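Structure first, sequence second, as always.
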């Protein structure tokens, strides 16, 4: 696809039209192997409707009319929904396939809703799918069978909004990860005696010191950082570094821009200076946060029109800035202030305690219910035995009475009839308390469904 990716704006990003970095020193076979990987790789956007979004884009790309309109559209046409109106003019087979994709997505969302309701003990309630589907903003819930222009408009606008918040959410997730790690460290140390605690604290400090012993990390997007990629990844003479050639080498899908994934691939060499998955002291979650920080730094200084893509013009203009040749020293995560404050950590720990107490209460409630059911089971078993004993005594008295009256013993048919009648009596007496037990369980108050949407 040779469309200007600015026209796709978010769609080009969310569709995953990016590739892995190519090792230019590997020869034709290596390049062919990487090209195959490029075609196979499909980076997940992190959106819970990621697959649906990708499949819709792939189908739209097959329509010549829609592709033609894309070539003449601009960013605003895509963002404000004008391009969505062109959906009415696409081929019948395309619309049919889009209708099928939407029905599949609605079916998937219904399954997620059912699973969520089941987990909250509301499975006995009748679900209003049309009402519940309104919480999902990437499709029109009122029309669950056909894909219309409104669906495309909603899909684009929702994905745009979600991806704009995606980096902020990733930072927040990393903060919670770091707080959880610190919480677990403190709890672990609390459980040790003084001698072992001092020894473990010393070991942890040594690991931190070892982690900080690494080569200098070049500022992302600086001439030093790019020259290093040019030399070590591309296998070229650093003295012959050319920004324009560099850009074309790392525009791996040849769409005329560097997207976020192509940029992040440029930082691998710098990150390898600090992080090694084989080392106990190196945290790979921190490495990915570092990669995100580097990409945001470059985008902030290079992406002039803030479309989350770096054009050749923007890239060349950044190489003319003073910061390109004389950047500020890059500080890795360990050199910066913590991503959370002590107050935030205390609040986080309070949340953990509340959740733990809630789980303990639920566990205790379930334990009591289990004990109650066991006791009721024992009572029912005792009652069953009493009935059996009563039946035996009744049978014995009847035989004795017949003998006293000089009547012959009951024949096989009469005995069988007697057993059936007594069994009916026993079953009738036993059925009532069992039905009451089941009814009581079915009438337990249901917990309302929690907030949706769900993430897959």
């Amino acid at each position: 696809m040779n469309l200007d990716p600015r026209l796709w704006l978010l769609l080009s990003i969310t569709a995953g039209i990016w590739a892995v970095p190519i090792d230019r020193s590997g020869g034709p076979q290596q390049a062919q192997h990487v090209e195959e990987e490029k075609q196979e790789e499909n980076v997940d956007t992190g959106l819970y409707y990621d697959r649906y979004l990708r499949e819709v884009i792939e189908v739209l790309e097959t329509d010549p009319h829609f592709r033609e309109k894309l070539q003449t559209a601009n960013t605003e046409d895509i963002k404000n929904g004008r391009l969505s109106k062109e959906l009415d003019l696409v081929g019948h087979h395309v619309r049919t396939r889009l209708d099928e994709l939407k029905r599949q997505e609605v079916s998937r969302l219904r399954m997620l809703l059912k699973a969520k309701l089941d987990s909250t003990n509301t499975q006995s309630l009748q679900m209003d799918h049309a009402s519940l589907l309104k919480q999902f903003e990437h499709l029109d819930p009122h029309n669950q069978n056909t894909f219309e222009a409104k669906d495309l408009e909603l899909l684009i606008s929702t994905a745009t909004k979600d991806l704009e918040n995606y980096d902020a959410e990733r930072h927040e997730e990393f903060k919670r990860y770091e707080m959880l790690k610190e919480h677990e460290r403190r709890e672990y140390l609390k459980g040790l005696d003084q001698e072992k605690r001092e020894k473990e604290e010393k070991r942890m400090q040594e690991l931190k010191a070892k982690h900080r012993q690494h080569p200098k990390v070049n500022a992302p997007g600086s001439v030093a950082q790019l020259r290093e990629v040019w030399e070590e990844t591309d296998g070229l003479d650093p003295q012959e570094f050319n920004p324009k050639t560099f850009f074309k080498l790392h525009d791996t899908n040849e769409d005329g821009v560097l997207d976020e994934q192509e940029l992040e691939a440029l930082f691998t060499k710098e990150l390898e200076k600090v992080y090694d998955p084989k080392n106990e002291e190196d945290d790979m979650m921190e490495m990915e946060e570092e990669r995100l920080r580097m990409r945001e730094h470059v985008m902030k200084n290079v992406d002039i029109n803030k479309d989350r893509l770096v054009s050749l013009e923007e890239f060349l203009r950044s190489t003319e800035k003073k910061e390109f040749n004389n950047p500020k020293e890059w500080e890795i995560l360990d050199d910066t202030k913590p991503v959370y404050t002590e107050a935030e950590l205390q609040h986080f720990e309070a949340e953990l305690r509340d959740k733990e107490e809630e789980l303990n209460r639920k566990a205790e409630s379930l334990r009591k219910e289990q004990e109650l059911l066991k006791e009721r089971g024992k009572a029912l078993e005792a009652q069953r035995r009493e009935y059996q004993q009563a039946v035996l005594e009744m049978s014995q008295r009847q035989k004795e009475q017949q003998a006293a009256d000089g009547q012959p013993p009951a024949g096989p048919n009469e005995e069988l009839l007697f057993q059936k009648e007594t069994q009916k009596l026993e079953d009738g007496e036993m059925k009532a308390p069992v039905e009451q037990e089941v009814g009581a369980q079915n009438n337990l108050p249901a917990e309302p469904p929690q907030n949706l949407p769900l993430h897959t």
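Margin note: The longest helix spans residues 342-404.
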